[in-house]
Write a structure and sequence with these properties.
This protein is of the alpha/beta class. It is 53% helix and 12% strand. The strands form 2 sheets. It has a 4-stranded parallel sheet with strand order 2-1-3-4, sandwiched between helices. A 3-stranded mixed sheet has the order 5-6-7, covered by helices on one side. It is elongated.
Length: 280
């Protein structure tokens, strides 16, 4: 679908970028809401939205496509609260990085035929409307997760991402999405935060950190409250991923203890080859 009236609830990095790109793409009316009045004012003043109603329900009533762009737990609450207010025939999606919970909530609320989850792979450790960018979503992969009876809504949502935002939509089952993202997104966040915590405690006062330490800990600067929600919502998939790190860490320890140059080189090579393939 290519809506003439688009509503976005949450005007942070993803929601704000979505609003900016939708206006650039020619969507006639973009309505935005945020619990932070300053974000609503900034988005309106900068032309990302056409109006910023004070109540989320006023946005939900007025639009053809409603995008929930708050943190995951807040999106669950918004979906339940706004279900009676969403306009007849309107389609709903969200942009959270955990999908099973909100897909199940939509089905329980009787919104399954009108809802499809979304997850743009375009995050940033910045937050708030100040982190929104005009090009953040262009060319990004966006996972679209249908409900049991929501194939039609999933097609509409996928078309929106592709035709309006120039993203690449990939339809995927919610459970498969959460299992995959535990490895490709949530585990890297956990490892970056773990390393940052260790360095904060162990590094000598006044130590200088070069690009290596800065690059590998970049994700640790992300919002703790947001990632607490993500980790807890997807903990059944994240915990096995974390525990699986014990094997390669043990291999490294054993190679170092034995002074095994061949084993250590092989261990490092496996990681190097995989990382280089990401850039090809």
């Amino acid at each position: 679908m290519r809506p003439t009236k688009l509503g976005i609830l949450g005007l942070g990095a993803i929601g704000g970028s979505l609003a900016r790109q939708a206006k650039r793409a020619g969507v006639p009316t973009v309505l935005g809401w945020s619990p932070e009045p300053a974000e609503r004012v900034a988005a309106a003043q900068q032309g990302a939205i056409d109006d910023a109603p004070a109540r989320a329900a006023d946005v939900a009533r007025a639009v053809e496509l409603l995008v929930l762009a708050a943190p995951p737990a807040a999106n669950l609450g918004l979906l339940a609260t706004l279900a009676p207010h969403v306009g007849a025939g309107a389609v709903i999606t969200d942009v959270g990085s955990v999908k099973r919970a909100i897909v199940a909530r939509a089905e329980r609320l009787g919104l399954g035929a009108r809802f499809a989850g979304s997850h743009p792979i375009a995050g940033t450790h910045g937050h708030g409307f100040a982190a929104a960018r005009l090009d953040l979503l262009k060319g990004a992969v966006v996972y679209v997760t249908p409900t049991r009876d929501g194939d039609g809504a999933a097609r509409e949502v996928a078309h929106f991402w592709e035709s309006v935002l120039e993203a690449n939509a990939v339809v995927i089952d919610a459970a498969q999405h959460d299992r995959q993202l535990a490895l490709t997104s949530h585990l890297p966040q956990a490892v970056a935060s773990l390393l940052a915590q260790y360095l904060a405690r162990a590094a000598p006062a006044g130590a200088t950190f070069g690009p290596g330490a800065r690059d590998t800990t970049r994700l640790a600067a992300s919002q703790p409250a947001l990632w607490t929600e993500v980790f807890l919502m997807n903990r059944d998939e994240l915990l096995p991923a974390l525990r699986s790190l014990e094997e390669p860490l043990g291999e490294l320890e054993r190679a170092l203890e034995a002074g095994d140059a061949v084993g250590l080189t092989a261990w490092l090579r496996r990681g190097a080859e995989w990382r280089r393939r990401l850039d090809t």
